[in-house]
Structure formats: C-alpha cells, structure tokens
Amino acid sequence: MNQQDPRGAILRPEQAARYLGITKRHLYNIAERDSTFPRKIVFSVRCVGWRREAIDLWLQVKEGSAA
Predict the structure, then answer these.
(1) DSSP one-letter string for the chain
(2) How far apart are CA 44 and CA 15, in angstroms?
(3) How many CA atoms lie within 13 A of 64 on its CB side?
(4) Are 56 and 20 in contact (CB under 8 A)?
(5) Angle, nearest 10°, between helix axes 13-20 and 24-33?
(6) Which residues contact 53 (CB under 8 A, 6 or more apart)?
(7) pTM here?
(8) What is the per-residue pLDDT across 19-31, written as a single tens digit (0 to 9) for each?
(9) CB-hemisphere CA count at 13 Å for 7?
C-alpha cells in the first residue's frame, strides 16, 4: 500500500481550523490579517486549502517568537 506523508496533506478550511484548534472564522481572519500565515491554495472559486507542512512551519516560527 502506498502511504502519503501526512505533512504534505492539503487541509481544507474546516480541517485546518480543527488542526489549529480555532474556528473557521478565526482561521480566515488570521489568513487575511497575518502576512506570515501561509497563503491558501485556490483550487476553484469555492475550494481552497492549506498545506499542513506550511501551517506546521508557521506554528514553529510563532512558537519561536513567543520565547
């Protein structure tokens, strides 16, 4: 069986919000206002997502700046 690396997974808005422990509205607010947050990938007008790997890297940077 061919298993993909989950870090390369694309997280849809609901999944990304759950992954970060926030609401979808808060996710969209962060995406709009925080220039360091990963850019969303637009697949179509109503279909977007974020790479889990990019979100993980953003979290690492945020954790480092809080220290």
Answers:
(1) --PPPGGGPEEPHHHHHHHHTS-HHHHHHHHHH-TTSPPPEEEETTEEEEEHHHHHHHHHHHHHHH-
(2) 18
(3) 6
(4) no
(5) 90
(6) 7, 8
(7) 0.81
(8) 999 999 999 999 9
(9) 4
